Amino acid sequence: MITNSQFQDGSSAMNANGRQDLSGLWDFAFLPEGTSLGDHLAGLRFETLTVVPGCFDLMPEYYLRRGTGVYRRQVEAGGEMELISEGLGLRGEIHWDRQRIAVIDAPFSRRVIRFDAGKSGMHELIIAVNNEFDDTPSSLFHRDYDFYAHGGLFRPVTLAPASAIRADELKIIPLEPAEGTVRITVRFSGKTAGLTQAEVRFDRQGEPLILPLKDGIGEQVFQVPSPHLWSPDDPFLHTAEIQAGGEVFAVEFGLRKIECRAGKLYLNGRPLKLIGCNRHDAHPEFGYAVPLDIRLRDLTRLKQAGMNCIRGCHYPQSEEVLSLCDRLGILVWEESLGWGNNEAALTDPEFRARQIRETRNMAVKSVNHPSVIIWGFLNEARTDLEAARPLVKSLAETLREFDPSRPVTYGTCRLAKDVCLDLVDVISFNTYPCWYGFDQSQFCNKDDIRKNLSELVDFSSKPEFKEKPLLISEIGAEALPGIYGGQRWSEEYQADLLETVVRFVLDSDRCSGTFLWQYCDTRTFLSNASQSAAGGFNSKGLLDRYRNPKISWRRLSDLLTNKNSQKKED
Q: How would residue 447 be classed by pLDDT, with cut points 50, 70 and 90?
């Protein structure tokens, strides 16, 4: 659920269960790049204030600087506690009363830390977040990634008394949605000795149903009373309350089924055509700490434009974004962190272990969101190399083992040279005809775009691939806001290219959809291994960095809303 219980003065709000939302003002200090926290923590002076969630490298004093942001606040606690970090970047250390209690080594990932807080009273909590690049092969975020590496506590932090029973995993998988059958799987930890069953209630109705447990683990098929399908046109959410050992765990879920059959995607038994955008959950002023109202405006605007999906590039999305998509009926491709990873990374044992761990963590976090219909990983990795196959295979198997109900894919720019496509359920091509390459004509060549897409359709229709749905997972062109005339970099050039793509996909019986690159202009680096970016922004957005529409947005909105109106009339 989406809640906001933060007091305006920055003090934490405590709910009936003692959970404190630590959003608001924190004391702050900054250590320049290359400075060790351990050498300076004892004498560190906190002379600045900052806000959580937020990105410290967007504060005027530390704008786009690398180093360690050190956050401090006093909190009231005692006994065994549970601290939850919903996402930070790029890595963090957590200190309680000047003793380190945890290390977080993965950006954008949720972490739950249990610890002994000592006697009840006021305590000092320090979270040090480092945004420096780690250039070793095992790093999950390299300096060559084509999106910005912000530093900070950019997702919420909460603190609560540790409950006796913890739900490490709780998933509700629809089996036959129209009939309301679901499989509930739980994995509890804590004081589970002697715990033989949990009680399940749907939509706060009827008598509790029994879920048998052994060693804190249970799985059973249940019937949801009065089942109501979830769909983009009718995003209805059911609830389940699962009680175990005096603890109650509430989950929202939707009854819907996504399938791959005969080379197409199906949702609730109907063919599905995906038309939407790649969307970085970022903003030039707030970084990855995007305010709720901007997220809501983004997603509402996308749906009003006739689009039905987003790809959450290229990292796990926040609970806030996924909950909004659940309620608005927007379909989501959710993927773990990765971009262009080379052979050195793909074959590095620590990188592989981290990728598998974080990809599974993503699925555990997001599995109950009905809006999530596709799992992804390793965007634009070197999947043209045989060396990539073991990791791709492991990631696909990890996702299928945890959740066999959703298809698995990855966005590849290796196209026909990719040697890992047999390992996934959906073929997803990142292609940029009439933009990248040696032939950079002044005006958009629509025939070349159609030729490129037709070649991908032909390739994916080979006997070994024809049963897999085809998606164009990235495609686009840069348009500098306010540049007109139809030439490269103009708004008309981009609009001509994207309209040609969308019309092709809508008319194609083989292609199940496209995620246009991208929703809005976003911050990247002035240069990386693949390209240079004017002003440090990727300008392929259909909207500019502050969400003002370009010509392409208006043209595609007219096309898609008219198409959807005709479909409803038919």
A: very high
Residues 435/498, Cβ–Cβ less than 8 Å: no
DSSP notation for 205-243: EEEEEEEE-BTTEEEEEEE-SS--BB-SSSB--EEEEEE
What contacts 405, CB < 8 A, 6 or more positions away? 173, 174, 257, 258
The CA distance from 203 to 226, in Å, is 10
Under DSSP, the state recorded for 253 is: E
* Whole-Å CA distances, 46 to 42, 69, 349: 11, 11, 39
By the 8 A CB rule, do 404 and 396 touch?
Answer: no
What one-character-per-residue DSSP string does 320-348 give?
Answer: HHHHHHHHHT-EEEEE-S-SS--HHHHT-
Residue 462's CB: how many other CB atoms inside 10 A? 10
Residue type, 80: E
User: Residue 441 has what pLDDT?
Assistant: 84
Q: Scanning the structure block, which residue is given the tokens 């693949």?
A: 530
Would the pTM count as exceeding 0.85? yes
Separation of alpha carbons 346 and 382, rounded Å: 8
Which pairing describes strands 157-161 and 121-130: parallel, antiparallel, or unpaired? unpaired
Given a cut of 50, is residue 6 above it in pLDDT?
A: no
CB 163 within 8 A of CB 190: yes
Both tokens assigned to 272: 């599905």
pLDDT class of 531 with cuts at 50, 70, 90: low
Instruction: Quote the CA–CA distance of 559 and 553 in Å, as a whole number.
Output: 10
pLDDT of residue 12: 45
- DSSP state at residue 401: H
DSSP class of 162: P
Reduce the secondary structure of 413-436 to three states and give it as a string: CCHHHCCCHHHCCCEEEECCCCCC
What Rg value do the Cα atoms of the chain yield, rounded? 24
Which one-letter amino acid corresponds to residue 308? Answer: N
CB neighbour class for 504 (10 Å; exposed up to 12, middle 13-18, buried from 19): buried
Annotate 147-184 with b (16+ C-beta within 10 A) or e (fewer): bbbbbbbbbbbbbbbbbebbbeebbbbbeebeebbbeb
Q: In whole angstroms, what is the distance from residue 550 CA to residue 532 CA?
A: 22
Among 339, 337, 272, 362, residue whose Cα is nearest residue 309: 272
- Whose CA is closest to 150, among 323, 286, 306, 349? 286
Higher pLDDT, 42 or 76: 76
Location of structure tokens 């320090």: 126
- Within the chain, what is the greatest distance between any pair of CA atoms? 74
Is the N-terminal amide bond of 369 cis, ω within 30° of 0? Answer: no
pLDDT in tens, 371-429: 999 999 999 999 999 999 999 999 999 999 999 999 999 999 999 999 999 999 999 99
Question: In 10 A of CB 136, how many CB atoms?
Answer: 12
